[in-house]
Amino acid sequence: MALLEVDNISVHYGRIQAIHDMSLTVEEGEVVSLIGANGAGKTTTMRTLAGLLNLSAGKITFDGEDISRTKGHIRVVKGISLTPEGRGIFPAMTVMENLDMGAYALKDKSQMAADFDRVFDLFPRMKERRKQLGGTLSGGEQQMLAIGRALMAHPKVLLLDEPSMGLAPQFIRQIFSIIRQVNEQGTTVLLVEQNANQALATAHRAYVLETGRITHSGTGKELLANPAIKEAYLGAA
Ligand code: ATP
Fold it and tell me: Which of 38, 114, 146, 210 is the most buried (most CB within 10 A)?
């Protein structure tokens, strides 16, 4: 049984259908990437999985339970954390306070010191800047803070919406290396990206989304080698 199972879902904004009969699975322990161009429906998919948008058809199963109608804050408690596009950190709060907010849904707070340590091990720069206001961090640092905040909730699956967006190349490499580390430490990851090269290289499996429909799927390696994907997404014929 997959950890996350998306079964023929459709999502509408009013009369506009943004997602058409989408099905995908994420197995425990995997990094799965969803790649697609601007407007393909990547953010809509992530917001739907996080419980911020309603399904108009289909079913989402998480950890064996139908969560299709479960509210977003309950999904966090069940183990689904979203790092939204544009990061969504709290600019007027310090790094520590931002991380603290990530743990709001945890019932057992006794481990919080260890959780801070884990985040600071992954992101030493966050430790140096722990008293700095979130809004004064660089874009790459804000992305690290957003991932750190999501990890504070002990997710079973981490949903990352375009973590590399707007970042300089050295930060992009760093973010993908951190995604691999987080996964190796036991967190399942579903990642949406326009940066198809890195997203496919990092993923065990991946899906391609075009105008709200899944058009290809396979291992990261298979999709990297697929001529149609190369031409459309990897900047090489
Ligand atoms: P990007 O990388 O540009 O964010 P995306 O793949 O994340 O693109 P979405 O933001 O999910 O794409 O948008 C999918 C489709 O849904 C687009 O056609 C978009 O115009 C439409 N859409 C998104 N948000 C809304 C909204 N609030 N109201 C109406 N249509 C919307």
Answer: 146
